[in-house]
Amino acid sequence: GQQLNQSPQSMFIQEGEDVSMNCTSSSIFNTWLWYKQDPGEGPVLLIALYKAGELTSNGRLTAQFGITRKDSFLNISASIPSDVGIYFCAGPAPPMKTSYDKVIFGPGTSLSVIP
Amino acid sequence: GAGVSQSPSNKVTEKGKDVELRCDPISGHTALYWYRQSLGQGLEFLIYFQGNSAPDKSGLPSDRFSAERTGGSVSTLTIQRTQQEDSAVYLCTSTSGRGGNSPLHFGNGTRLTVT
């Protein structure tokens, strides 16, 4: 079935550094979603991308919808301690249905920020 | 307003027993998903409810797993004859749209431990 791959699996960075992570798939996605999960909580949507080539920012976060429609990137600038968590890419599993979306998630990138 | 509520937050059960996990979605949300998150893993899709349509059960790992959604609101995930490999965090999420074009609102999950 469809599968999303994320890299790196985990990252340890110094506070203030920039972060870059990506998500790839062997299938074309029409929507790319980035969620963040804080410890002990459910994931929360950060950014949604709907168009190939789209570049969208949310504060210090920037995400891009890859031209091939098989990948997406998330960048975090000037990291701070509260950026710690697991970052998931997600999207409606192809082939997309007409009436609903089966949203699948990647395995996640675990981010640790050293103060 | 209130977010997605899941109960219990923690459940310890003996192998072979049945368990029921409850999800109260956000009022008015027509779509409801169940996911499973094993330690250090991503979110595994289990089942999806959308309005009055037949649920998408394609992610249920075995016939020991079942779920229902009564009155288009509260959902119950039932695991019969639990096995140790069922130990995981079970996350429920709801959305007002299709999931691919509207944010998924997650509960904090039920942590299930099968001894």
Any chance you could write out the topology, listing elements then pairs?
The complex is a heterodimer of chains A (115) and B (115).
Chain A: E1 4-7, E2 10-14, E3 19-25, E4 32-37, E5 44-49, E6 55-58, E7 61-65, E8 71-76, E9 85-92, E10 103-105, E11 109-114
Parallel strand pairs in A: 2-11
Antiparallel strand pairs in A: 1-3, 3-8, 4-5, 4-9, 6-7, 7-8, 9-10, 9-11
Chain B: E1 5-7, E2 10-13, E3 19-24, E4 31-37, E5 43-50, E6 65-69, E7 75-79, E8 88-95, E9 105-106, E10 110-114
What report would you give on this structure?
- The complex is a heterodimer of chains A (115) and B (115).
- Helix content of chain A is 0%, strand content 52%.
- By secondary structure, chain A is mostly beta strands.
- The radius of gyration of chain A is 14 Å and the shape is globular.
- Chain B has 115 residues and is an all-beta fold.
- In chain B, strands 2, 4, 5, 8, 9 and 10 form a six-stranded mixed sheet that branches. In chain B, strands 1-3-7-6 form a four-stranded antiparallel sheet, with no helix packed on it.
- The termini of chain B are far apart.
- Chains A and B meet through strand 5, strand 9 and strand 10 of A and strand 4, strand 5 and strand 9 of B.
